[in-house]
Amino acid sequence: MHSEDFVVNEYSFGSALSACAGLTDLNMGVQIHALISKSRYLLDVYMGSALVDMYSKCGVVACAQRAFDEMVIRNIVSWNSLITCYEQNGPAGKALEIFVRMMDNGVEPDEVTLASVVSACASLSAIREGLQIHARVIKRDKFRNDLVLGNALVDMYAKCKRVSEARLVFDRMPVRDVVSETSMVSGYARAASVKAARLMFSKMMERNVVSWNALIAGYTQNGENEEAVRLFLLLKRESVWPTHYTFGNILNACANLADLKLGRQAHTHILKHGFWFQSGEESDIFVGNSLIDMYMKCGMVEDGCLVFKQMVEKDIVSWNAMIVGYAKNGYGTDAFEIFRKMLLYGEKPDHVTMIGVLSACSHAGLVEEGRRFFHSMRAEYGLEPLKDHFTCMIDLLGRAGCLDEANDLIQTMPMQPDAVVWGSLLAACKVHGNIKLGMYVAEKLMEIDPLNSGRYVLLSNMYAELGRWKDVVKVRKQMRQQGVVKQPGCSWIEIQSRVHVFMVKDKRHPRRKDIHLVLKILTEQMKRAGYVPEADDDEICEEESDSEPVFQCEMEPQADSAVA
C-alpha cells in the first residue's frame, strides 16, 4: 500500500502493527514504526497501543516501554498492553508496578487488566498481592463470571499451593474449560496430591497436551517416575502430539530411574518429532539440557558431552548439567575444565554451579581447591553460601578426615544445620573410626530426626566395628523404645524389559533357594579372597536368630518400557 502511494492514516498503521504482532514479525514492525516516526502522526491511543502490543508479542520489552512513554494520551488498552508485556516477558514484578501506577493515574482496571495482574502474581508466587486483587474482583460483581479472569485466579492459587482456595474459585465458576481443569491438575500435583490430580484429569471431557504435561510433571516431581512413563505411553496411544515440555519431563523420569534404555528411546522419539536441540531456540535448549542430565545420571558421560557439543545455544542450566554430571561421575578435572570454559564464555556461575564444583572437589579429594572455591563464592561471584554448599564442604572435609574442621564449620553455619548436614559428618566419623565425635553427632541427629532408622544403624555399626556389642544392643533397645523401624534395603536391575526388585528379608521370590545358593558360593569366594562382610545389626539381634538368611529378593514385572 505504502509503495504504491496510497494514503496511509493512523488506522492503517494500527492495523499493520496488529498484523505484525499476530505474526511476531519484528522486522516489519520496526519498519512500520520508522514510517510512523517520519509521518505527521503523533502516537495516539490507537497506534501507540498497537505499537506496544507488537513489541510485547515480539518480546522486545524495552521498545514496548519506550513506545508507551512516547504516547501523548493513554487509555485502558494502552495500560493493559504494557502490563501484559511485563507479565508475559518479565520481570513480572514490573507488571504490578505498572498496575499501581495506572491506578494512581485514575484509570479503572477492566477484566483484562486484572487477569494479567493475577497471572503476574502467579509467576511471582505473590499470594498476598493475589488475595488483594481477588478482593477487588469480588467487589466488582460484573467480573465474577469472566472465564479468563476465573482461570487466572485458579492458576494463581494453584501455583501458590493454595489448592483449597483454587478449588473454591473453580467450583464457583459458572463456566469452565480445559484451562480451568488443567490448572487444578497442576495445583494438586504441586501440592503432592497426585491421586487428586489424576482424578481431576480422568474427569476432564476435553484434554490438550498441556493437561497431559501437567500430570506427567506431577508424577515426576513427586517421585512417581514409573507412573510418569506409563502416562507418556498412554499419551502416545491417544495420538497426542508431545511438546518440548513433555520430553523434558519424561527425560527427567528416565534420569531419576537411571533407565538408559528408556532414555535413549525418548531421545530417538525427540528427533522423530523434530525437536532438534541444535536450533538454538529456547524450547530446544530445554530439551538439550534434559538430555544432558539424563545421560549424566545414567553414567553415560560421553553421550552427555556429545549433546552439549551439538547445542548451538547454551544457558546456565546447560553448563550446570555438565559440571554436576562430571562431578557425580567422578570426573573432577573435567568438571573444573568446563567451569573454566563457562567463565571464559562470560556465563556467571549461580548457586547450582558452585554445588557442582564443590561436589567435584569432594569426589576428587581436593581439599585446598574446595576451600578456595567455597570462599570465592562471596568474594568473586557475589553468592551467599546456602545449606547445600555447607553440606558439600562438610562432605569434602569428612572424606579427607578433617572431622574437627567439618564440625567447626557446622557450628559457624548461618542457618540451622539439618539431618543431612549432621548425617554427612556421622558417615565420615564411621569411615575414620572417630567414635567420640560420632556419638556427639548421633545425639544431634536423634534430636532432629528421632524416627530415622539410618542414624541408629550407622551408630550401631560403628560400635560393632569396635566390638562394643553392649553398646550395639543399647542402640537397638533405644530404637525399639522410640518405635523406630529399620526400612529394608532395596535394589533392582532391568533385564529384557523386566525390572527385578531385590529386598532384604523378602521371602516371596519363587527361586529364592537358588539365589541363596549362589549367594552362599559368592560369600565363600569373597572370604577366601580376604574380604570379611560387615556385620549388620540385624544379624546380632537376638530376636532374629532363627530367621532366614539376610539377603532375600522379589521380582516384579513392570509396565512395558517401550517409548519409540
Strand content: under 5%
Tell me the strand order in the biggest sheet: 1-2
Low-confidence stretches: 537-562
Helix content: 55-70%
Structural class: mainly alpha
The number of strands is 2
Q: Between the first and last Cα atoms, what is the distance in angstroms? A: 51 Å
Summed over residues and divided by their number, the pLDDT gives a mean of: 86
User: From the alpha-carbon coordinates, what is the Rg to the nearest angstrom?
Assistant: 30 Å
Shape: elongated
What does the largest sheet look like? 2 strands, antiparallel
- How many distinct helices? 29
Précis, in short:
The C terminus is likely disordered.
Structural commentary:
This is Pentatricopeptide repeat-containing protein. Keywords: Repeat. PPR repeats lie at residues 75-109, 146-180, 208-242, 284-314, 315-349, 452-486. It is a single chain. This protein has 564 residues and is mainly alpha-helical. The chain has a domain at 490-544. It has helices at 10-23, 26-38, 45-57, 61-70, 76-89, 92-104, 111-124, 127-139, 147-159, 163-172, 178-190, 194-203, 209-221, 225-237, 244-257, 260-272, 282-297, 301-310, 316-328, 332-344, 351-364, 367-381, 387-399, 403-411, 419-432, 435-448, 453-465, 469-482, 512-528; strands at 490-495, 498-503. The protein has a two-stranded antiparallel ribbon with strand order 1-2.
